[in-house]
Amino acid sequence: MASLDDPGEVREGFLCPLCLKNLQSFYQLQSHYEEEHSGEDRDVKGQIKSLVQKAKKAKNRLLKREDDRAESGTQGYESFSYGGVDPYMWEPQELGAVRSHLSDFKKHRAARIDHYVVEVNKLIIRLEKLTAFDRTNTESAKIRAIEKSVVPWVNDQDVPFCPDCGNKFSIRNRRHHCRLCGSIMCKKCMELISLPFANKLTSASKDSLSTHTSPSQSPNSVHGSRRGSISSVSSVSSVLDEKDDDRIRCCTHCKDTLLKREQQIDEKEHTPDIVKLYEKLRLCMEKVDQKAPEYIRMAASLNAGETTYSLEHASDLRVEVQKVYELIDALSKKILTLGLNQDPPPHPNTLRLQRMIRYSATLFVQEKLLGLMSLPTREQFEELKKKRKQEMERKRILERQVVLESQQRFEERRSDLASRAANGEVVSLRGGPAPLRKAEGWLPLSGSPGQSEDSDPLLQQIHNITSFIRQAKAAGRTDEVRTLQENLRQLQDEYDQQQTEKAIELSRRQAEEEDLQREQLQRLCEREWEREREQFRAASLHTRTRSLDFREIRPFQLEPGREPRTHLAYALDLGFSSVQSSAAAEPPAPSSALEPARVWSGPPALGQEFFPQSMISQQNELASLNPFYEEDPSSPTAGGTTSPPAAEHSFGPSVSILKEYNPFEEEEEEAVAGNPFTNPDSPAPNPFDEEDEHPHQRPSSPPVPGNPFEEATCTNPFEMDSDSGPEGEEPIEEELLLQQIDNIKAYIFDAKQCGRLDEVEVLTENLRELKRTLAKQKRGTD
Amino acid sequence: MNVVFAVKQYVSKMIEDSGPGMKVLLMDKETTGIVSMVYTQSEILQKEVYLFERIDSQNREIMKHLKAICFLRPTKENVDYLIQELRRPKYSIYFIYFSNVISKSDVKSLAEADEQEVVAEEFYGDYIAVNPHLFSLNILGCCQGRNWDPAQLSRTTQGLTALLLSLKKCPMIRYQLSSEAAKRLAECVKQVITKEYELFEFRRTEVPPLLLILDRCDDAITPLLNQWTYQAMVHELLGINNNRIDLSRVPGISKDLREVVLSAENDEFYANNMYLNFAEIGSNIKNLMEDFQKKKPKEQQKLESIADMKAFVENYPQFKKMSGTVSKHVTVVGELSRLVSERNLLEVSEVEQELACQNDHSSALQNVKRLLQNPKVTEFDAARLVMLYALHYERHSSNSLPGLMMDLRNKGVSEKYRKLVSAVVEYGGKRVRGSDLFSPKDAVAITKQFLKGLKGVENVYTQHQPFLHETLDHLIKGKLKENVYPYLGPSTLRDRPQDIIVFIIGGATYEEALTVYNLNRTTPGVRIVLGGTTVHNTKSFLEEVLASGLHSRSRESSQVPSRSASRR
Fold this sequence. Notes:
Chain A: It comes from Neomonachus schauinslandi (Hawaiian monk seal). Chain A: Residues 474-524 form a coiled coil. Chain A: Residues 14-42 form the C2H2-type domain. The complex is a heterodimer of chains A (782) and B (568). Chain A has helices spanning 26-37, 47-73, 102-131, 140-150, 195-203, 207-211, 226-241, 252-269, 273-303, 311-337, 348-369, 378-425, 443-455, 457-475, 478-538, 540-576, 579-585, 594-600, 606-631, 635-642, 644-648, 654-671, 685-697, 708-714, 717-722, 724-754, 757-781, and strands spanning 14-15, 22-23, 98-100, 176-177, 184-185, 191-194, 247-250. By secondary structure, chain A is an all-alpha fold. In chain A, strands 1-2 form a two-stranded antiparallel ribbon. In chain A, strands 4-5 form a two-stranded antiparallel sheet. In chain A, helix 10 (311-337) runs antiparallel to helix 11 (348-369) and helix 19 packs across helix 23. Chain B is of the alpha/beta class and 568 residues long. Chain B contains 20 helices and 18 strands. In chain B, the strands form five sheets. In chain B, strands 6-7-17-15-11-10 form a six-stranded mixed β-sheet, sandwiched between helices. Chain B has a five-stranded parallel β-sheet with strand order 2-1-3-4-5. In chain B, strands 12-13-14 form a three-stranded antiparallel β-sheet. Chain B is globular. At the A-B interface, strand 3, helix 3, helix 9 and helix 11 of A face helix 1, strand 2, strand 3, helix 5 and strand 5 of B. Strand 3 of chain A pairs antiparallel with strand 5 (119-123) of chain B, so a sheet runs across the interface.
């Protein structure tokens, strides 16, 4: 209770001014405000409106600021905010027209590529045949026979000149046959295929690469192995000796085709160092892209003091991410220096490529690494946690307070109404039971936490998931933990939302009921008024003395109001003892109407216990009300102005209005099967008593951070009657102000942290203004 | 309708289609400009494009571990280069994109050279996207006399059709009747649309888009005026070439600021200030400096605690970016203001505006004469004042152009500029204008001008509204006269147009770009894109006039420059 008495306390976060729900950002707050409260501020209208607008304006201003901030970070189209229809704002456009020539391309090259492939395959098959036997240990004649069987040789007589160089064949310039295609060329134009080369082509395997020797003319035999050089030496001698049994003669064309093929094989199998390093680099970058957002999520949560993630886990992750960054740095450096001290320095383009890769890696690290926020230290974290806990607690209290406050108002009005009705018709009830039983009325509430714990499935689920998380953490399944945590958070959000929805629902219903009541009230008043006028005529003197009476009664009247409140405090304390139990205390929403009804009407006899209690207040007021009626010719008009619907709708006698309430009560009665109260003795007063159950149970702690007792003094039921509308609004406005102040304090805090000094100034100015308004208002209400 | 975005999307698509891995972008001279306007280096690096090569550069190394993305105009030379490239591939795989329609025969010969299974597509990014609503083809000297240079006509047609394709618009075409060139271009565009009808099959919009083709001749005043909004001013005084500004002539310039890039795509300050006037820029620069200074001390003074350092490091990328921005804009604006005072531009501009917007001959003449005596006024500015006078008071009864020409000669203005005066009159004089630049015809405009005269002007330096504004205003309201701007073909637009593409043969200006920008902002539902064969400042406009060869006053001898005219 103590915390409630301190209105100056700073609350942080984006709190909805009406339902005190903590929303995570301006946007959410705004949309929340628009969704939830646009229709339901009926009872908060009037003078409040201006304040709301003021607050909204301030919010908008801040909102805009945040927009600017958010946009300054991003580049591109979002950062342009001229207003109006800027060319940048034109609706998103699709990709422009495109035409593909791929099918044409395929059509044209298909024949060529087919031809090429067939050619290559043919040559390789022949080569395989030519190398399939042991050449060195076979007689040359036999070799020739085999070679001739692979491909038919062109007849010597058909080719008088070398087709490539045009020299005439003679005894000195002998004809040579290509073993692969059978064509004829001169010795100069002849090429030779070494066996390892042939092997490499036919097997196309990596092994042959190391032993491979490309013939001397091959342009890309950069890394000839030792053995290769030896064999090339021997090849020279063999050419001299014309003993080339370990080689295969072929023409230039076949050789070219084969060389091309070899190149392709090489490219396929050889990956340069830069590619290997680069692939590693990209892998690291991907890892960062995965991990960094996760870490940022964690760090943000931890810095906010939440306990969804563990600090150790987060710092582990931080270290991990940082290591990856170091790796990226190292890899890119390695790429940069690749081949720098090679003898023929690399081509300038290669160097450029390396520099560019390094540059982009640096950019990447700069952009991402510096975005990693730091984690709180252990002590800081403990502090944050504590702070957060307190905050949550406070929030919860405040949330509940709002509910309670509205309930209280509701109750007060109810009881007034009831007393009035009673005054008019059920005078016999005056001698109700003693106030002793009052306390007993609270018992079911104190017992309710246990009940509610079982009954709210959401809470149960939250409980379960928390234990799952614990288990999963113990088992070390981090990904599972994460999904569970996500789950948990959703549940909590859901739960929070449910709670606030309930609260909102309640207050809305109350507003509706109040309207109805007001109508009713007015009707009663009118009737009373008429009756009074008769009386008035009879005894005007008498009235005056009575009115004096009333004033004397007033202090007494406060007593009963105070008493239940202390009981409530007790009940609340119980409620606060655990998170779960507090939930049950709060939420009398129609959606879950059954549940609260059950709780409140707990023991079958309960209704009776309440009955007297409500009677007490009635009693008190009845005493005071008489003078009121006499004095009150003006009150109907007041009622008429504050609740226009009542004036407009021509309702029948008050009884008919009471009947309108009946369905609602019946519902409750059904829920409370076996409640003896379902058989009321007199139909007219009973509904009121039934309704009175609510107000008395979810009682009446004062609105928001303001001092409850101050409130109590000004919520004189009598005054409430005469001008219930504005009277109800006054405290809310103050409450709103206080909230706004709190919000602004939070903004200031935030701005200070981010070092936006100019903003801080604006905000403090704002705050001062609000405080002044508040002070003014307090003076006004006091 | 955002041309920058359209080109950017094309480039992004190309890069995405090639998949992961190191990439090289193979371009020609023009596509290099096209890509550089929409992508910054660091932006494109993030997409794994590490090298930028020209297809015609011979000194390219074989790098089989790179993927090649070729973005080329479909010219004969490029196709030849590409065939060579494909025959002896330097990269592992090729993705070929043409910036325009390529002929079937070229596709065939390419395919025959291909052994790599390349991918070939047409992406129609065949124009320079300057601003979201402004594009250029960077052609200087598109006309010979009054008629098109055939090569430039085909290039312009390609550029315009590519623009239409990239925006997916199949427009109705209107052109300026008084210009033969406009008519030719309209016909050529129509021809392409008819020929490539399947390409131009887009989803029909309720109101078809409109292409309006204008000729610079109709408004020779606008490119002759000094400008006072940031982008236009920079172009007028320093010259913007594909977003790059050459500052090497600035006295005492530091080495890394010899050439700066002003791109709204990645320079927030520029994006927010390019349409503001010089005075506003001044104060914004001041704010920028103050911001900068506020941040700077953090690094130099308060780096005592670790928390300070941390904060600094966390702010570092923004800080670095900001410091670059600050020094760049401070230099540019400083140079602008130096030129303004050195050349006495405020005074010159005031008289220019008077010449362009008011009809008081005697006071205008007096002012021009006075300025011609001022030694601070450069020969360039003196010549342009006389040009403006000559254009406005060409047929005035007490025209004293010869006297002014004498003054120019006495001032020592070179013959080149003196000749240009008559050339400009020949280029954009009353005889060739289809509409009246100076005296409004309809009653509304007359009253407007009258009221304007009564009220006085808010800013003497920015009184002038380009003629384009009136044309577009009429067009938007559906009041543009069909006898002056006829439709090509039988069909006409019944509704008011919504999507408008304006193309100015002979080049647009940044002042007109600003006008279009403002029209876009103030008329909801209307989207206008402006294009020109180039974007002019006075200097380039005079070159354009010179290139068109209109030195003589007689149309017949326009191809043969005659000296007699200049002696007048």
